Amino acid sequence: MKFNSKWTRQHLIGIEELSREEINIILATAASFKQTMQRSNKKLPTLRGRSIVNFFMEPSTRTRMAFEVAAGNLSADVITITGNASSLVKGETIRDTAANIKALNADMIIMRHSSAGAPKYLSRVVDLPIINAGDGAHEHPTQALLDCYTLQENLKNIEGRKITILGDILFSRVARSNIWALKKLGAQVTVAGPATLVPKEFTQFGVEVCHDLRKALEDADAVMLLRIQHERQNATHFPSIGEYTRMFGLNKERASWLKPDAIIMHPGPINRGVEIDSQLADSDRSVILQQVTNGIAVRMAVIYLCMNASLQSIK
Amino acid sequence: MSNLRIIGGRVIDPVNNIDEVRDLYCINGKIAASPSDEQKAEAETIDATGLIVCPGLVDIHVHFREPGQTHKEDIYTGTRAAAAGGFTTCVCMPNTSPVCDNAGTIQLIQDSISRNGLINVHPTGCITLGMEGKKLAPIGSLKNAGAIAITDDGKCVQDNQLMRKALEYCKMFDLCVMDHCQDDSLTRDAVMNEGEVSVRLGLTGWPSAAEDLIVSRNIILSRITGAHIHMQHISSADSVELLRQAKKEGVNVTGEAMPHHMALTDECLSDYDSNFKMNPPLRTETDRLAVIQGLLDGALDIIATDHAPHTDYEKDVELDQAPFGIIGLETCLAICLQVLHRSQKANLSQIIAWLTHKPAAILGLEAGTLGEGTNADICIFDPNETWEVSHETLHGRSSNSPWLGKKLQGRVYMTIVGGRKVLENNIILEK
Predict the structure, then answer these.
(1) Which domain holds residue B31?
(2) Helix (H, G, I), strand (E, B), or coil: what is residue B279?
(3) Of A95, A201, A234, which has the smallest distance from its Cβ to B196's Cβ?
(4) How far apart are alpha carbons B23 and B25 in whole angstroms?
């Protein structure tokens, strides 16, 4: 594969700073990797001899595994470190941990952290490419990229489409990254959910804030559901899970308000019977598992592009 | 003690309505208007031509971290940073370790001040035991030990009845209560000002309302008790307006502005740099301009720094994990000149008043004037000299400044305490 010289970033911290063209470079690169994933031998020799550290300080199933698979598909060596198994529990700062990772000859760090801004901070203080795999409530860029990829696969184009993001927007890094990505790609974005979790400040990012579920879902081409993040909220944000489901959960009746060919998306992990009706999650309209598979191709593209940019900058 | 003759400088002494080029004499540690010929002859001459000569600056809100957190700062290093910033009197906050809720800790600080202090320092005592907001500290004993005011700074008494009783009790001793205005229930896990920027950065917001609620409460409690409450570090436009209205009514409240709240906004947090994280947080442009306007029209009374040192390794972490606070003593004058003077909002005399006799008056300190017979505490500065804030140019133990690496205009040339030079041309002069 020929390296796209228009891509010059060695870090991927957020979607906010990317241009539309850069997003399209990643999506196009992911499309070619998706083809190679369908071969019987999925491995490409591209990053043979490179080592990548998956530095995960928060629990993760999908993202962590998808990054491991993506790096493996590119023949890089992958080492995964989790927060509770690292020296952070002994009081080491992430700056020192990252400096040690570099001293151990790693070529890239993929980082998940509960503190917003941690990857940006690390990219300032450690001379290694940093890929953000989710930081606090800030950004989760590869999730938004795989969501855009999945939307393109199903809807052909994103420009002009009405996309509704429903749920806990305030605490969601997925929502923020998707808002930036979808706006840059020309979609009309609506964020919906209870007023305590969908603050009016979001209108300043060029999206519609809506607390009326019918208006939010009507004529939408896709709905992205978000999990209610119990671990981030105190009791003041909504009365109960039961009330959330009754007022804002996606059930069959509410799904019928969407456009007939609209798709249902979810970054996972899903809580069946809470934000989404269990059968809907498994229905034909649901592309939840397709999103997961696309996550590999998108992450291959991100690792590949950033690693190459990093090598170019060394030359 | 040598006598000093400061010649050729523009002497600005706001409380005495002086702003003119004249000579100034320090004889036996005091300001002398008409020294004898013999005293004149033997005095050391200091040429202040082209410089401003004003009363030594007064900061009634600093953290010198002694006892208990002396890896960040102590009275030795803190008073040297103060001298470098032109300050000759500081009032240090009681959130030390242990906190100043007992006479013994105040005495320990007093002892260190007399051994290590390069400038005048006054300790304060806590409002509540352990600064826990539950039981009154022995405020009378703290006053007897030397506490100049009472405050739980860093924390805010949430219990309204306890605050009311503290005010009634302090009024009996003629002690000012300095309050850090923060409603805890609105600021749980908060990192920065709540608004568009916090939402964009995914950081938990700290609404202005948290400050406004307590400022309102304090105005109401001051009205019913008659006690003097000094509201520390006012950062929100609505709080400025609340103070403006309360003063119109004659309520016994005062308010303080910080250089950083007048110079910076929450947009500065976009790089997650912890040298822009402090409590209360940097707010919006509207708030920034309101704080400046508050000083100009008297809604706010004084400028203070909230000098809050932390080491590089404490600050150099994820933003939400980093401690709140920045240093301020050495950059205060330059920032005030930038924000208030060169922007043509205020003249030098006004700025010097906010940094000298006005803060002194809030706590009844004998400082902030060049009147005849007063202690010769003097600051001589060049309003035009440009310098770079760096680990090398700072004199304190910590360098957690938002202006680190930046060039500032306005620098202290000399600081004189009680007629003795303690800083000259960036060199500390030890006793």
Answers:
(1) 4-52+375-394+403-428
(2) coil
(3) A201
(4) 7
The closest of B124, B105, B14 to B60, measured between CA atoms, is B124
DSSP at A250: B
Residues of A in contact with B321 (CB under 8 A): 115
Looking at the fold, whether B300 and B408 belong to one and the same domain comes out as: no
Q: Across the interface, do A234 and B321 touch by the CB < 8 Å criterion? A: no
Q: How many domains does chain B have?
A: 2
> Which residues of chain B does A121 touch, with a Cβ-Cβ cutoff of 8 Å?
272, 318-319
Residue B280 in tokens: 């209360």
Write phi, then psi, for B325 (nearest 5 degrees): 125, 150
CA dist., res. A268 & res. A293, Å (int): 13
Helices A288-314 + A62-73 axis angle, to 10: 50
Give the chain A residue whose CA is nearest to the CA of B272: A117
For residue B368, is it within any domain?
Answer: no
Model confidence, pTM? 0.94
The Cα of B283 is separated from the nearest Cα of chain A by a number of Å equal to 15
Q: Suggest the residue from A94, A169, A201, A226 to mutate for an interface test with chain B (most B CBs closer than 10 A).
A: A201
Q: What average pLDDT does this structure show over B232-247?
A: 98
Q: Distance between CA atoms of B413 and B420, rounded to whole angstroms? A: 14
- Domains of chain A, CATH where assigned: 20-140+293-314 (3.40.50.1370), 141-287 (3.40.50.1370)
In this structure, chain A runs to a length of 315
By C-alpha distance, which of A50, A72, A61 is closest to A129? A50
pLDDT bucket at A2, cuts 50 / 70 / 90: low
Please tell me the distance in Å from B391's CA to the nearest CA on chain A.
18
Q: What is the pLDDT of residues B341-384, one digit of tens each?
A: 999 899 999 999 999 999 999 999 999 999 999 999 999 999 99
Contact B200 A173 (CB under 8 A): no
CATH number of residue B113's parent domain: 3.20.20.140
Residues of B in contact with A94 (CB under 8 A): 317-318
- Domain C-terminal end among B339, B362, B385: B362
Give the domain CATH number at B13: 2.30.40.10
Question: Is the CB of A139 less than 8 angstroms away from the CB of B202?
Answer: yes
Residues B87 and B219 in one domain: yes
Non-local (6+) Cβ contacts of B194 within 8 A are B205, B206, B207, B208
Q: Of the listed B74, B266, B301, B306, which one is catalytic? A: B306
Interchain CB distance below 8 Å, A138 and B317? no
d(CA A133, CA B105): 48
Question: What are the tens digits of pLDDT across the range A145-194?
Answer: 999 999 999 999 999 999 999 999 999 999 999 999 999 999 999 999 99
